[in-house]
Amino acid sequence: VRPSNPAELVADSRTSRRALARLLSLVEDRDATLPEIMARLVTCAGRAVVVGVTGPPGAGKSTTTSALVAAWRAAGRRVAVLAVDPSSPVTGGALLGDRIRMQAHALDPGVFIRSMASRGHLGGLSAAAPQAIRVLEAAGFDVVVVETVGVGQADVEVAAMADTTVVLVAPGMGDGVQAAKAGILEVGDVLVVNKADHDGARATLRDLRQMLGLGAPREPGAWRPVVVATVATTGDGVADLVEALDKHRDWLQTGEGAARRARRAQAEIQALALDLVRRLGPDEDGGSRLAALASDVAAGRLDPYTAAERLLDRP
Ligand SMILES: Nc1nc2c(ncn2[C@@H]2O[C@H](COP(=O)(O)OP(=O)(O)O)[C@@H](O)[C@H]2O)c(=O)[nH]1
Ligand SMILES: [Mg+2]
């Protein structure tokens, strides 16, 4: 029997992968029970460290994530990985390759890996990802990794939802430059030059440090991005990356962590509020109010600003 009521699903998600997977599908499909589910998860907020991993396709995000998972597991931490493609409504082939790279952890009960698409979400994954993170926090994971596929605006937004954002580039291919153009370097708390076994890694490191202006003065107490070189396939440098992430986590305790989470909640509330307004169509509750206001505006009895205010004035 498949438990289907929200209370049971939430209770079971700590021990049953099936319940957890079902909850994430409900998030993905923007199910009507989501408000109730989210209400049940309120007290679990902030339990996990959320690490965003982004960077150009092929730079080694999945391989690096897999190496990080191994390191965290060795330290006894439970890890969930959310592989998301913000630009695609369907789970694409890129994520299939990720699954293969994560296969080493497939049988570990302390690891949960899930690909997610933006089905049904008007706000795309920018709206769905925070809810998926809430579900995974409630299920008892200590670390939630959100890996995005590329360097588009949506990828940057999703990655920036994390407590700590890792931006990964590889030598050559102008990856560093591409990342800089996409505005992705600014969101990186930790920058990784992966494939350090390739020619040009040193030049990429230098370019990156230059682009970041690492020597430039910053506000006192501000985080100074850390640049790390790794070979994800062999694990070289992964310990340095783990150390950089731990250091950032400690820095977050100074108050910045709470501020980041509040900013993230703000974006989440706005996305949900916009979604609610958009759904005040003819078929939803409030639709008749919209129809009445619309005919008043069309007939010249009411101005549209007042109508909009009245629409938001929910009973
Ligand atoms: N030589 C080398 N290859 C790597 C390294 N990291 C990843 N790769 C390879 O690069 C390819 C893309 O890696 P993947 O993790 O899927 O990249 P993603 O698209 O950013 O997730 C795979 O064939 C990996 O085996 C590395 O440090 N050195
Ligand atoms: Mg990948």
Summarize the helices and strands and which ones pair or pack.
Elements: H1 6-12, H2 17-28, H3 34-41, E1 49-54, H4 61-74, E2 79-84, H5 93-101, E3 111-116, H6 125-138, E4 143-148, H7 153-159, E5 164-169, H8 175-181, E6 190-193, H9 201-212, E7 226-229, H10 238-278, H11 287-298, H12 304-312
Parallel strand pairs: 1-4, 1-5, 2-3, 2-4, 5-6, 6-7
Helix pairs in contact: 1-2, 2-6, 4-10, 11-12
This protein binds guanosine-5'-diphosphate and magnesium ion.
Structure description:
The two termini are 39 Å apart. This protein has helices at 6-12, 17-28, 34-41, 61-74, 93-101, 125-138, 153-159, 175-181, 201-212, 238-278, 287-298, 304-312, and strands at 49-54, 79-84, 111-116, 143-148, 164-169, 190-193, 226-229. Helices cover 48% and strands 12% of the residues. The radius of gyration is 22 Å and the shape is globular. It is built from twelve helices and seven strands. By secondary structure, the chain is an alpha/beta fold. Helix 9 (201-212) links the parallel strand 6 and strand 7 (226-229). It has a seven-stranded parallel sheet, sandwiched between helices. The model has no long low-confidence stretch (mean pLDDT 84). The site of magnesium ion has 3 residues, from helix 4. Magnesium ion (MG) binds next to helix 4.
